[in-house]
Design brief:
- Keywords: Aminopeptidase, Hydrolase, Metal-binding, Metalloprotease, Protease, Zinc.
- GO terms for molecular function: aminopeptidase activity.
- There is one protein chain.
- The protein folds into two domains: 282 residues, 3-Layer(aba) Sandwich (Aminopeptidase); 124 residues, Aminopeptidase i, Domain 2 (Roll).
- A hairpin with a 2-residue loop joins strand 2 and strand 3.
- The protein is globular, with a radius of gyration of 22 Å.
- It is built from ten helices and 18 strands.
- The strands form four sheets. Strands 1-2-3-13-4-14-17-15-16 form a nine-stranded mixed sheet, sandwiched between helices.
- The longest helix has 19 residues.
- With 432 residues, it is α/β, with parallel strands linked by helices.
- The protein binds zinc ion.
- Zinc ion binds next to helix 5 and strand 14.
Length: 432
């Protein structure tokens, strides 16, 4: 029997707040943690000894978070049900010696993170956000959320080939933002500016992980407001939905049949190989320590992992009205049509038939429609943390997500209903 929907447009409203407040992976996990705290979850430190109590807990490491809820009566071998996602998005990131400039312009030297649609970063008002590391090793989040930088596009009058040949951007020469005027560029200017903005003494910041973001807030779009335009939906949309789903399931948890988990990793956009990426040991360590903290043995760990399922949630491609031929002719996911099940027989996605059945049951329980996505055989297929999670931990994994347009643009586009339909499906999956 289908229950009344747990999530509605209020979820999408909250997603807009979450997106705007999460210009970096570090902000995203802090905002996820804040929502989990309100649901009764408490942070545990990796360096501490863990106790095997029931309830909600989470681990923060850099731009990654793993949160789980142990129901009353769960055994050491109780399997996990995991929602996986990633916190990072393609953008422009500050280089180690950022202060540069030419011809009277002050500029910030940036590297290209992941695979952004470079053109989408031109002529936007950009802020700067991320993490500052202080002399004592502590970190401080920073967010200059006002127009601070801009990558100015060359005027068409000076680029007569652009109309015929399209825009060609060189990542090194053409993507360096300006942030003011002056011929007296000094090494240390940018960090001194950020120290002052963060209320820190000069010279206190000795390390940084900083990135640009569009300061334009997310907005409902379209005749009927049934679309949502905003940044970083790939993949904060899933991080937010997974957080909401875990909080909802924990508040009503009564069945000890499984332990619901949220695992949101950094560095998906450049291959997941880091201490906070899906190809690192973070998730496996947390799950194992949870088993052992409850008095489990290695046998219990093996039994728990054997019964564990992961839903890897990420964005996918909705059918594009101007480029329908790029999609498979019979698989045309539509926005607001519900979450998508992603299939690729060459394991770019981890979904198999058993995984499809698991996801089908979750969607049916939630009363949520879903759609199928597969690539056109002549087009390359993206990938996710799904195959990595399956291979690294030996966990059955299903790739799903939400169909959007303009993936990897500085401003993406999705349906306004799909985020809460996804959250409903994730919650039903976590409590199966
Ligand atoms: Zn993604």
């Amino acid at each position: 029997m289908t229950e009344p929907a747990r999530f509605d447009r209020g979820h999408t409203d909250d997603l807009m707040t979450f997106l705007a407040a999460s210009p970096s992976p570090y902000h995203a996990v802090a905002n996820a943690a804040e929502r989990l705290e309100k649901a009764g979850f408490r942070q545990v430190a990796e360096k501490d000894a863990w106790e095997g109590t029931s309830g909600g807990k989470y681990v923060l490491r850099g731009g990654a978070i793993v949160a789980w809820y142990v129901p009353e009566g769960a055994a050491p071998h109780t399997p996990f049900r995991i929602v996986g996602a990633h916190t990072d998005s393609p953008n422009l990131r500050v280089k180690p010696l950022p202060d540069s400039g030419a011809h009277g312009w002050r500029q910030v030297a940036v590297e290209i993170y992941g695979g952004p649609l470079l053109n989408s970063w031109l002529d936007r008002d950009l802020g700067l956000a991320g993490r500052l590391t202080l002399r004592d090793g502590s970190t401080r989040l920073v967010n200059i959320d006002r127009p601070l930088l801009r990558v100015p596009q060359l005027a068409i009058h000076l680029d007569r080939t652009v109309t015929a040949d399209g825009l060609k951007l060189d990542k090194q020469r053409h993507m360096q933002p300006v942030w003011g005027l002056g011929d007296d560029v000094q090494g240390g200017d940018l960090i001194a500016f950020l120290e002052e903005a963060a209320g820190l003494p000069a010279g206190e910041v000795t390390g940084w992980d900083l990135m640009t973001h569009s300061v334009e807030p997310p907005a409902y779009l379209g005749r009927d407001g049934d679309l949502l335009a905003g940044p970083r939906m790939d993949n904060l949309l899933s991080v937010h939905a997974g957080t909401a789903a875990l909080a909802a399931v924990a508040s009503g948890a009564s069945t000890p049949a499984s332990i619901p988990v949220l695992a949101a990793f950094d560095h998906e956009e450049n291959g997941s190989q880091s201490d906070t990426g899906a190809d690192g040991p973070l998730l496996g360590n947390v799950l194992e320590r949870s088993v052992f903290a409850r008095g489990g043995t290695y046998e219990d760990r093996a039994r728990a992992f054997a019964g564990t399922v992961c839903l890897s949630s990420d964005t996918g491609h909705a059918v594009h009205p101007n480029y329908a031929e790029r999609h498979d002719p019979t698989h045309h996911p539509r926005v607001n049509g519900g979450p998508i099940l992603k299939v690729n027989v060459n394991n770019r996605y981890a979904t198999d038939g058993a995984g499809r059945a698991d996801f089908t049951a979750a969607c049916e329980a939630a009363g949520v429609p879903f759609q199928s996505f597969v690539s056109n055989n002549s087009m390359p297929c993206g990938t996710t943390i799904g195959p990595i999670t399956a291979a690294r931990h030996g966990i059955r994994t299903v790739d799903i997500g939400v169909a959007i347009l303009s993936m990897h643009s500085a401003r993406e586009l999705c349906g306004a209903d799909d985020p809460f339909l996804l959250a409903g499906a994730l919650a039903a999956f976590l409590e199966r």
